[in-house]
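FAQ: What does a ligand-bound record look like?

Like this one, built around thiamine diphosphate:
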Amino acid sequence: MFLRLPCSSILLVPCLLAGSQTPTPKALRRNTHNISTTFKLSSTPSCSLAPAAATTNSPLPLLLFDTPPSNRSVASSDAQAFIGRSGSQIILDVLIRNGVEHAFAYPGAANVHLLDVACSDARIQLLMPRHEQGAGHMAEGYSRAAGKPSVVFVTSGPGATNVITPLQDAMSDGIPLIVIAGQVATKELGTGAFQDADIVSMTQPCTKWATMVGDVEDLPAYIDEAFRVATSGRPGPVLLSVPRDVFASTLRDDGPRMKIISPSLPPQTRPPPAQLPKPAAAKVLENINEAAARINNSKMPLIIAGVGVCSSPDGPRLLRQLALRGNIPVATTLHGLGAFDEDHPLSLHMLGVHGSVYGNYAVQRADTILVLGARLDDHVTANIDDFAAAARSAGSYGHGGVIHFEIDPRNTNRAIPSHIPVIGDVVENLKMLEPLIEPRPRNNWLEHINEWKTRFPFIYVPSSEGQRVKPQEVLEELDRQTTDMKDEVLITTGVGHHQMWAAQFYTWKEPRSLISSGALATMGFGLPAAIGAKVAKPNKIVVDVDGDASFLMSGLELASAVEYNIGVKVLILNNNTQGMVYRWQKLLFEDRFALTRMANPDFVMLAQSMGVHTIECRTAEELPGKMEEFLEYDNNCPIVMVCQVDEEEALYPIVPPGKAIHKLVMHPSLPLNPVYK
Ligand SMILES: Cc1ncc(C[n+]2csc(CCOP(=O)(O)OP(=O)(O)O)c2C)c(N)n1
Ligand SMILES: [Mg+2]
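The answer part, i.e. the structure of the complex:
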């Protein structure tokens, strides 16, 4: 709670220091701003050390600082409009005016006031996970499905630290997520109080902005700013740490106030990030024209489509027009799956470490590569130095090359040097490029690719009669039974082989239909992300394709799904191993399997204990019937289908560590001599 004293009240300080219930500032510094003025964030709080006499009663001297004008202005505040409202009420009002309808929330001492107010506010629905990490992933799934920021409420200490993994996940994959974390009371900050943790410092590296909001009057401006930061440029997460007294205090218009912070902590009020400078429009246009000229002159162009294409519905439409007119094949990243219809002959499906052979070959052979909204991490590029060999060579001679459309300029030369960077909103810039692309037949190039496609498809050996079903068979059956309703289906995944098999054997036709942890690869993401996606899109069929180990990391969130009648469909591909790591051990550690074979629970009984209807499938023969039952089950109730899959099935193709993207280890049944030429 902040003191609101007339300046003359400074004389009261000595008695406050004597240990009364009132907050105990050790030094005072006048704050001259008034709530009716435009808010400014302190970039570096101007702290002044307390006079020695004033610190003697406290083991941790407190500092008072004001919020001096800085050059980073927070969105203009209308705090005046909230006079008489409590901090919690203000938070809800401002969330709601930013379009929030749901929040994923877990209670604790530091946020009970907020939850009490939120629970009786009909404008917002709270959903409680069974673990704060679940709340974070639910929110990520919600954001991805709804295409808007999502909100999480957690308490201080462990509640807040439990949400660090989702924050990093959202940071890595560019998901707008706003976490409001309760904090110990202002006067307890840095005193080692119960459940005190310096969450602002901890989350600085894994958010776009993490800050404490230490004053009720700052809440409207800071929350508006959180939405701006989370959604501007490349989207990402924001954490606001709110001391519990701030939730409860009422905004009053009774004069200047003083703000207190402990010097034992790094300053917890941090300014929002500066906006990245926008490139001059003329330069962007010049680069787009140059890009079009190089594409039109190219004999062997290729597009790599990432998630940036899906940032607006226009993206996939423009991509299709451009690719079809220019006869340019399209490979996608994991997050780009669905940006281009995989049934189209120009589709090269997913490229990368577990991508298609033909996609990887084509990326090495192409003289011009148009990258659209993809970061190009090493899961896509394999060995960075060897990636896009022909295009890089062509580009250095001033024709062809790597053309990179990207919202975040830091990504354009991060891994792969780009000859023509086109910085800005990918879809807006695509709108300018698309009409400039001229029709070209490119028959030789497409014939070459088709030969690779015929010779090196994604492939597996089907299960023998009565044997455990193959994971690929399960995914092909899911694909077959959803063929006519792809636009109604959202798929989430865990992390591991099952995730890659889903990418390979499900036919991706719809943008944003895959919700998966790509860059951070967070096991346990699938189920909570599915729950969040289903909350955002209740009429969709939401299927979590999960691995046994991934499911176990967050499986108790089924209880949350049951509690709120969230009809997620969980498809567990149980190979009783941490398959992806197990295969690495087989390859690199001479069959020594450290910790990757697991004694699993009975997944059927586990799910049933939470009141979830469960199906078990063991063989390919029973698969079609069981899959039908699974998909047709009441879309408002959760269901689990446990597929007892072949434990030894390996994932192909794979680019071994350190190798170039075309040096794949292929399925043993494919020709031994690669025809990459
Ligand atoms: C939180 C977390 N811990 C560890 C890993 C490393 N890891 C990647 S895949 C994997 C095994 C996944 O097993 P499972 O979910 O059963 O999938 P499978 O590969 O068997 O299909 C592990 C341990 C990770 N990605 N995330
Ligand atoms: Mg497994």
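Follow-up question: can I read anything off the structure? Yes, for example: Residues 496, 547-549, 575, 577-579 surround magnesium ion (ligand 2) (CB under 6 Å).
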